[in-house]
Specification:
7 helices, 29% helix, eight-stranded mixed sheet, alpha/beta
């Protein structure tokens, strides 16, 4: 009887212990560090959405995710794009082309293309707020005279990931730092929502060519 009671106690303890049954190894995740949204045809107000995501490559970032020396390298990230009728559909299409599951909790910035911003961003905000996997403290930036997808492909000399440079520029107190929570709260307040602009800038071939700056 004592042995049976002991066995039952062990079985009950095993059943009552909570485990990470839904955890996913990091090497099975696509870590999205930045994303962008544009109109596929900026001149067409009824154009499809064009979404882009900047995905970190952990194997190339062993010396640190942020600016840890060595400067920017396009090997540290990839940028994937897809078109669709809604923000949800575009992200779903990108996910279908990637073998790893999206991880959005580490997304630093969200870049909204100027044409998309003029078209209206209600659909994008709805996706970001309702998506439980999204990070509500991601910074909001608006692309000036340049599509968001192109900015996500521009390297920054001092950081391995362009998204890290954007984050540091926002935190430098030289720009208006507005995250998703603040942006949405202003929509329901008395003032209009606003965000910093980001644009491409040519610093010359001797200084890594084109990069970006906040404006």
């Amino acid at each position: 009887m004592r042995k049976a009671a002991a066995y039952l106690g062990v079985i009950f303890a095993c059943l009552s212990i909570t485990g990470c049954w839904d955890s996913i190894e990091i090497n099975r995740l696509a870590i999205v560090v930045a994303s962008g949204i544009d109109l596929a045809d900026p001149k067409d107000p009824h154009s499809l959405d064009l979404a882009s995501v900047q995905i970190a490559r952990p194997s190339q970032l062993q010396n640190g995710m942020s600016g840890s020396g060595g400067g920017a390298t396009s090997n540290a990230y990839i940028v994937e794009r897809a078109t669709g009728r809604t923000a949800v559909e575009t992200l779903s299409k990108i996910q279908q082309t990637i073998s790893r599951r999206f991880f959005l909790k580490d997304r630093r910035v969200i870049i909204i293309g100027e044409s998309y911003a003029r078209h209206g961003i209600a659909d994008l905000l709805d996706e970001m707020v309702r998506n439980s996997a999204s990070r509500l403290r991601s910074y909001i930036l608006v692309a000036n005279h340049c599509p968001a997808w192109k900015l996500l492909n521009l390297d920054y000399p001092l950081d391995r990931l362009p998204s890290d440079a954007m984050l540091e520029l926002e935190d430098s107190n030289r720009a208006v730092a507005i995250n998703l929570i603040q942006f949405v709260s202003r929509l329901g307040g008395d003032s209009d929502p606003y965000a910093s602009g980001i644009e491409e800038v040519d610093v010359g071939k001797k200084r890594h060519g084109a990069t970006f700056r906040l404006n």
